[in-house]
# Entry
Amino acid sequence: MKTVIIYFSESGKTKAVAKTLSKNLDTDLIEVRDLKNRNGFVGKVFSSIDAFRESKTNTVPSRVDLQNYGLIYFGTPTWAGNATPAIITIIDKCDLRGKDIVLFATMNSSGGRSAINRMKEKVESRGARVVETFTIKTKDKSVEKVGEDSENIAKLLDLSLYNY
Ligand SMILES: Cc1cc2nc3c(=O)[nH]c(=O)nc-3n(C[C@H](O)[C@H](O)[C@H](O)COP(=O)(O)O)c2cc1C
# Structure
């Protein structure tokens, strides 16, 4: 059994967290892309509405085979106090029975905890056990700084403990 980090990132901050953790913890890494056009002001408004309503979206990959993984990280930016449509869509297609889960959310200032709580409800209802969660504030931080912060959190929470 192995460990995998599954994440969505629109502007690169969550990607910086996922890549740093993957390197530090020696895990597989899967980026989920959202096929919906979310550009511009209107795109952002609809993104918030979609996240708030938990609207499903089309993603690439459309589903992930988790058979070989014992520990799965799900990482997302916070949108309107919730997880992103891409991550919610993927979680709702996964067979998570018996899996250990780590959840993380990046955010400007607030709402990451409620995003995590919602993801926790979803993964637990699909048969998984959440072993750790964390949020990272990214406002005004470079991707390098976000990477550094992630490295520190990984040490602080001793995330390697959960590795498969
Ligand atoms: C549509 C949209 C909604 C957002 N809503 C929130 C929010 O509710 N709270 C918050 O602190 N940040 C919010 N943000 C900021 C992002 O969560 C934050 O910048 C995140 O780290 C971006 O991650 P990414 O670079 O991986 O896309 C929002 C950003 C977008 C685009």
Remarks:
- The two ends are 6 Å apart (CA to CA).
- The longest strand covers residues 69-77.
